[in-house]
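Example 1052.
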Amino acid sequence: MKFDTPAGINPIDKGRVVGIPHDRIDGAAKVTGSAPYAYERHDAAPNAVYGWIVGSAIAKGRIAAMDLRAAEAAPGVLGIVTHANAGKLGKGSMNTAPLLGGPQVDHYEQAVALVIADTFENARDAAKLVRIDYTPEDGKYDLAAESLKGVMPPDSFGTPADTKAGDFEGGFAKAAVKIDQRYTTPDHSHAMMEPHATTAAWNGDRLTLWTSNQMIAWGVGEVARTLGIAKEKVRLVSPYIGGGFGSKLFLRADALLAALGAKQVGRPVKVAIARHQIPNNTTHRPATIQRIRIGADKDGVIDAIGHEVWSGDLPGGSPETAAQQTRLLYRGANRMTAHRLVTLNLPEGNAMRAPGEAVGLLALEVAMDELAEACGVDPVELRIRNDVQYDPEAGPQRPYSSRKLVECLRAGADRFGWDKRKAKPGQVRDGRWLVGMGVAAAFRNNLVGKSGARIGVDAQGKVIVETDMTDIGTGSYTIIGQTAAEMLGVPLDQVIVRLGDSRFPVSAGSGGQWGANSSTAGVYAAAMALRAKLAEKAGYPADKAQFDDGLVKFDNKSQTLAALAGREGLWAEDSMEYGDLDKRYAQATFGAHFCEVGVDIDTAEVRVRRMGGAFAAGRILNPKSARSQVIGAMTMGVGAALMESLEVDTRFGFFVNHDMAEYVVPVHADIPQQDVLFIDELDDKSSPMKAKGVGELGICGAGAAVANAIYNATGIRLRDYPLTIDKLLKAQAA
Amino acid sequence: MKAFTYERASTVEAAAKAAASVQGARFIAGGTNLLDLMKLQIETPTHLIDVNHLGLDRIEKTANGGLKIGALVRNTDLAADKSVRQDYAVLSRALLAGASGQLRNKATTGGNLLQRTRCPYFYDTRMPCNKRKAGSGCGAMQGMSRSLAILGVSDACIAQHPSDMAVAMRLLDAQVDTMGADGAARAIPIADFHLLPGDTPHRESALKPGEIITSVTLPKPVGGAHVYRKVRDRASYAFALVSVAAVFGKDGGARFAFGGIGAKPWRVEAADDAAKSGAKAVAEAALAGARTTHHNDFKKTLVERTLASLYRQQEARA
Ligand SMILES: Cc1cc2nc3c(=O)[nH]c(=O)nc-3n(C[C@H](O)[C@H](O)[C@H](O)COP(=O)(O)OP(=O)(O)OC[C@H]3O[C@@H](n4cnc5c(N)ncnc54)[C@H](O)[C@@H]3O)c2cc1C
Ligand code: SF4
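Predicted structure in complex with flavin-adenine dinucleotide:
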């Protein structure tokens, strides 16, 4: 099915199941521990043995010699995979450095060996006996020091590194009010709960990977490319995933090394990347340096806006596209954005929840706060004044498919009690706390992608959906079940959803908040095909048949789904593909974050006291799980604002605080009441679901609202994240 | 984790004897620190002596009005104990500021005193660290040292002592009761229990080989307002950047001990003497001889600010 004209009224609009809050249908399995994760597939691979990854002890250089004798002789050891015995390996198109290093070493903790033993403990102990002599080389590890050497990177995800409209320099030069500031954000770790993990088994030349992966079809392709085997020989199974946040978009060392290990020892092997290895072995969100210039008139109306971003990655890597939202969020005739990529020999940078916007808005939305103050305009009002209903780079000929930023700002401000905010900083005191409020806009692109599904009815009238879509804790099972239930007129408990298996039709996968809308649209397409088949079998005209209460109805006649399905059941498969509606219309999701903080008058400890937000993201398929996504993302925004930072040791070239004791993320005590309001919106140009993504929107801008609240509380403007006590104390003293 | 043998000691004497006679033997109590270190092979004991079943889990009043806390009393139980909450509230508060509920259920009084530093370079066996491997150098001093100590440090090591409980015990002038391999009991004032790094940062306590902690004894309660204030990078479940344990007397006097800033739980008499002059004077006295790095010099300011906050609180109460 092709979606190339705006959606009209369709079966989803009935809203009997879709749009109603539902508990997650996989919830009980997850909280009771009965949902098997990749490392626990004893059922599928009962005789698996254990692999432990040896990570490089240097950041850059070569392995001069490896001595495996002691490790091989250790108790229980069955084999050791290294570059020397792994055979010729290709490299995936999505990982920057090889997932098995050697003799060249590309980054600290890059996997250089896998030790396989009969028990987990034996593998881990023996790994310590692998002796490696390195010849280190000098590397570059300091983004700030290298930033002048940044180069323009190639297009990333179809968007250019630089954009221009009008005459930025001219516009900025003659603006009545100018903001010109630098902001920095550090490297971030995804810190999802389940580590990267895989159980691998070969059957002849066929490989099965029970793994934790957000993008099944990408994964199959990357495995095939790396091992040099046909895609048809690879099966990926990933029904349950304990969080990803982008860290599991790609093939990583656990899966590749489990496959190589299983081949070497001739039986299934499981590998998890240990928690302390994750920050340096896998991907992270790259640090940025950002410069923002805004030129406005004295009322705060923007005429010129410029955003430049520097970030680093390994040779051949990609930039953090933090200027993305600045291309689209506010008005202004004269504009420029630019990304510069610096070569660093740190571990690989890549996508983390809302790549681009999550850190771009940490800068842009503080700059807007600075502009509001400079013009003496209320920060909510400033954003309303600068609203634009079309893509401001392309002009009015590219309108937004739907854009309710202003509604979000107004409704959010109202609910939060924004009118009680004092414009002048440092005015409100509550005991030992200085209290302030901050606002920030939320913006995240809406991406759509081809997505397929298979759907059937069995002899009992149960509806079964199969797609390789993943549920990374987001609630995909449930919204896919809801979609199928709505389309076929059955209650949700009559639907069985099967996900995350490469034997199922290829879906859009989970990433970039495209998953919910795209994957349910794929189910919609398949369900339309099945409805036609059912109607035909009933002898009813396909466009007039009604699907209600487990019946197919026409005129006064009806037949049950079960009867029509018959003993064999009835199946249909289709996918949703997209025309150019996302080119003709700008598509994005919007929101407004509000935050109240207290800052200790003496110690500068910051406590978030309240958060609230209003969000517009098309049809909200399951308000319950959508709210969970938003509050979880707001929490991550608090982390980015106040505490999260991978600390770089620029001598050794690695992230020092590489475990969960030292890489701090918010805990319960850090997170207060969070209020989420969804603004009614149907986006008929996004898909027949009229939905957009919502999984990443909540992090976008959340941290900036915290930063702006700190300013309002204290009068201290910090531009280097995270906004920790040491920085606040230093700024106070200055 | 290297393979090890394990025994469950039946008496305190036997435990001490076994520990002294087996090369590389260690006691294991809650295991919340030791097991983590063993998994990373930062510690590689060959033999573990389980001291959980020696009956060292009681809290008793002493003849002279103090409190004797068995070495195996869990942090949760100690914090909840009625006489601790009544008479040594600072200890209860310090305990509850540490770790998490789950960890405190396992962590013991003896183990908490002997927990090792949280220096990130100590935790990565590929990095130089004099404490982990004598003579290998110090990774932290020129590296990331934001969380590390500024007092009692040496050219060899600037690691912080991470315990909250021990700071309160230092404030209360506790004494550590032990039994040696020869069966002899000894009482070590807590001030002498933890060693400064000097040239031998791997030596962290005054315990002799085989010596086992049997209890910690608190002297008579100190009257006054007991407070423990811990400042950290998030609201809970993080080690202190700076912590202050204090007892404010009715006469304006006070005593102080500090966490997060010292190579051991930190207390100086001069700071107590300055109590009546206010936060700034106390901080100055406490911080005498501080040696900071570019990353952790903020701790000096933070000590003063944390004290100021405590004084402000006391004034509000008065
Ligand atoms: C994630 C995390 C966060 C934490 N946060 C904090 C915090 O905020 N504040 C804080 O104070 N602590 C914190 N801790 C540390 C925790 O308090 C300690 O791990 C715990 O107190 C150690 O006690 P244990 O009984 O488990 O000791 P074990 O791990 O069993 O032993 C520790 C050491 O003491 C020795 N030992 C134990 N008992 C005896 C004895 N009777 N005689 C002689 N030697 C003995 C052992 O041989 C070993 O060397 C945290 C720990 C973790 C893992
Ligand atoms: S400060 Fe001490 S523990 Fe840390 S690296 Fe240096 S020697 Fe090791």
